Amino acid sequence: MVDATLLRAGWAKPFLFLLCSLPFAYIVYGVIADQLGPDPVKTLIHITGEWGLRFFLVAFALTPFRRWFGLAALLRFRRMLGLFVWFYVSVHLLVVLTYLFGWDWEIAREELSERPYIIAGFASWLLLVPLGLTSNNRAVRALKKNWQRVHYLVYPAIGLAWLHVAWQTRSSYFDAVVYGLIILVLFLPRLKVFQNRR
After folding, report:
1. Range of the structural domain that residue 29 is part of
2. What HEC string does the chain produce?
3. Please, what is the Cα angle at 89 between 111 and 153, to 5 degrees?
4. Model pTM score
5. Phi first, then psi: what are they for 33, rounded to 5°?
6. Long-range CB contacts (within 8 A, 24+) of 175-178
7. Rounded to whole angstroms, what are the CA distances from 74 to 66, 102, 182?
């Protein structure tokens, strides 16, 4: 069991920020040192997408973990983790636009017709944009009760992120099934709360 006093410590947020930055540092090192294997573009697209989804799952887990383990202090980190989700997914999108599409609409149209799962991934990123832009105290004050409604976009966003992974699977569905089960387990407690509110 995690000690709640550790979660409230002043160094907890800087430590989490450093921890969340490590995958990006590893990715940058792999690019600079040419350590991304024989197909660096494919590796770069894959690794940035994987980390984006992993952070998405961690951020999505905070609310149920708070309820299951009685750790209200976990919510201190929700905003930071959410912004890291947006960051890693945006890096993933930037890599795709640069190395797969070459910022060329004709190439993009051809790729989208051959790889429709990209549309699901892009739609997920679009839904994250208002979440990222409103993840500040000023937006909370301005939107008031509507702030929570805006942040309900996280549900279709994580669903589309899973669809993006599952749709492109060609051989083993293991990762897609595991991710889907994790999302389902994390969503069920929220569904109960929604029903109780109604």
Report:
1. 4-197
2. CCCHHHHHCCCHHHHHHHHHHHHHHHHHHHHHCCCCCCCHHHHHHHHHHHHHHHHHHHHHHHHHHHHHHCCHHHHHHHHHHHHHHHHHHHHHHHHHHHHHCCCCHHHHHHHHHHCCHHHHHHHHHHHHHHHHHCCCHHHHHHHCHHHHHHHHHHHHHHHHHHHHHHHCCCCCCHHHHHHHHHHHHHHHHHHHHHHHHC
3. 100
4. 0.91
5. -85, 0
6. none
7. 6, 40, 19
pLDDT at residue number 155: 94
Q: What is the DSSP letter of 36?
A: S
Other CB atoms within a 10 A radius of the CB of residue 35 amount to 11
Please give the average per-residue pLDDT across 160-189, as a whole number: 90
Q: How far is CA 169 from the centre of its chain?
A: 19
pLDDT digit string (tens) for 68-80?
Answer: 888 788 888 999 9
Interhelix angle 105-114/117-133, rounded to 10 degrees, is 120
Q: What is the 3-state secondary structure (H, E, C) of 163-190?
A: HHHHHCCCCCCHHHHHHHHHHHHHHHHH
SS3 assignment, position 39: coil
Record the tokens describing residue 170, joined without a space.
């060609």
What is the total count of domains within the chain? 1
Sign of torsion over alpha carbons 1, 195, 80, 30: positive
Q: Which residue has the tokens 């890096």?
A: 91
